[in-house]
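Morning, I've got a small favour to ask if you have a moment. I'm working through a protein record and want to make sense of it properly. The fold is given in discrete form, as structure tokens running alongside the sequence. Can you walk me through what the tokens say about the fold? Thanks so much in advance, here it is:
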Amino acid sequence: MRDEVGTVLVTGGSSGLGAAVAAAVEQQGGKAIVLDRVPPPNGFQFEEVDLANPREAEAVVKRVAEEAGGLDAVVTAAGTDACGDMMDVDADDWDRVILVNLLGTAAVVRAAIPFLEQSQGRIVTVASTLGLRALPAATAYCASKFGVVGFTRALAIEMGDKVGVTMLIPGGMKTQFFDGRKEEFKPGPNQRLNDPAVVAESVLFALRQPPGVELRELLVTPSAEPSWP
């Protein structure tokens, strides 16, 4: 196991799983750099970026990595959703889910790869159980997360032994992700949800693996996760 996690770029690091990952990185003696649209509440280094603009995201990642003297890992925890039947969801909102969750992920990874090759670093993408199982009223989210699954599996083969690649597949978590939704699209009152801090420990476990040791996919769900299997 690696003793240090080093400098870790975390997208979506101002809330939810991303914030938990950033906090876990700092607790392990590493340095978290948060990319998000709003500042993190914990005072970690922050760079404002909208992942719906992939070229902007690439430019920010490159600049941040150069200023930091390199990167040791990237965790793409940023995500958004637009619930409802496809014809009931605004077209721009539907497109934004794909832009942020899939194209934003790919853009950040693309920009980070040259730096991660130098450090023999690691990429952790965040998919979802809905990247493996399709549900109604979730066409945008499923499309984006199925895309992350395919992207990550292909990327792992492409990277070989140059950069580690792990895909996290989380189930439901107690985060702000469900805020603002209609009741029909929120977890049920008795549904079990994981603490994102616990799920973040899985990410840190992946980040601390030595070069050449791969945790290709980590499925972490509540014991009674309704979207799995």
